[in-house]
Amino acid sequence: MGSVTFRPEIHGQIEKVGSADIVVGIPSFNNARTIGHVVRAVQAGLAKYFPERHAVIVNSDGGSTDGTTEVVQLTSVEDFNAILLHHRVKPISKIAFPYSGVPGKGSAFRSIFEIAQTLDAKACVVVDSDLRSITPEWIELLVKPVLDGGFDYIAPLYHRHKFDGTITNSIVYPLTRALYGKRVRQPIGGDFGFSGKLAQFYLTKEVWETDVARFGIDIWMTTTAIANGFRVAQSFLGAKIHDAKDPSADLSNMLYQVVSATFQLMEDYAEVWKPVRDTVPVPSFGFEYTVGLEHVNVNTARMLKIFREGLLNLRELWQDILGAGDLAEVERLGALEDAQFRFPVTLWSRIVYDYALAFHLKKLPREHLIKSLLPLYIGKTASFVLEVEPMTQHEAEAEIEKLCLEFENGKDYLLNRWK
């Protein structure tokens, strides 16, 4: 990687700071409504848990027009007594600027990594700018295992509504767990802690002009850390409540970005995941407690309609990817009444592996390939919703665990066909 080129005004801000122990990055794009709360929580967490450490909040902005960066500059904790703090030793610096490069979260992160490297930070955190449930404790939970425990990567562990995070639950978590052998429950969570050493390692990788820089960054960070032998853990942060996305809304772009990044990583790290046979839990920090979760509304009738339209329009393409046997099973599903619709987990895990193989063998242009997975994924999600509707959160989690075991058991299917 070439040397870092910041705009002159950022240079001034960085020089004023000099060096830092902790860098907290907040990527943003038109989040004026929510970012003030995030900045206050971060400041309170730094003041409360790391009063002796020199900390910097970095807002890497994608060109907001709603005054997001101004909110960041003007936000402060008015009353440290209210958060039971009677002294603050080191002041917290702030750097806010528009990042340059490919538009997307990855480019925002790159700027944060570069500043962390320039300031020689020991620990870094990135948090989403639309979080409504962040508390000061998040900062302790994402930073302390790095500073005191020698960990390099801390993934978030949240309670999420059973219908939220469906791409994670049905594809990304079971697949990355089966491939790399580490049970990181939220590999694309959006809020992470990591060491300065890992931030520098990320900067050496040539991904910053690719699709990863748009939206595949979370899974890329998690997989890169695991596959390169960095020490990985997770911290329980409570609830993830943010500007929620309806699981049946425009998913095709998100699915494309996340799945294509995941499949590309399978190419890059084939020699790492092929020999992995068992999966192990990663160390977990934080006090786990039950949280009230915002309900997520799901329109299963609309989702099953999309699945059945896929059967009409994509039949030949699916036959090519899945083979005649599995296609026949998918067609059998299409004939079921909505209320009876259940997508077998064995079939689903095989479909995901078949798509990974089609990607590997370059059967189709990647965007065309992965977008054809959408109706199948939406059918699988509708099936999950119908199945876990009457269940508790805990029982729904047990269903996801069954799916993970199915992916682990089916790994030989993938290995035998991977050329």
If you had to describe this structure to a student in words, what would you say it looks like?
With about 425 residues, the protein is an alpha/beta fold. The chain folds into 2 domains: about 10-285, Spore Coat Polysaccharide Biosynthesis Protein SpsA, Chain A (Alpha-Beta Complex), CATH 3.90.550; about 300-410, no CATH class. About 50% of the residues lie in helices and about 10% in strands. It has 17 helices and 10 strands. The chain has helices at about 10-15, 30-50, 70-75, 105-120, 135-145, 165-180, 195-205, 215-225, 250-270, 270-275, 300-315, 315-335, 345-360, 365-370, 375-390, 395-410, 410-415; strands at about 20-30, 55-60, 95-100, 125, 155-160, 180-185, 190-195, 230-240, 280, 285. Strands 3-2-1-4-7-5-8-10 form an 8-stranded mixed β-sheet, with helices on both faces. The protein has a two-stranded parallel sheet with strand order 6-9. Helix 4 (about 105-120) crosses helix 7. It is globular and about 65 Å long. It starts with 7 loop residues before the first helix and ends with a helix. About 45% of the residues are buried.
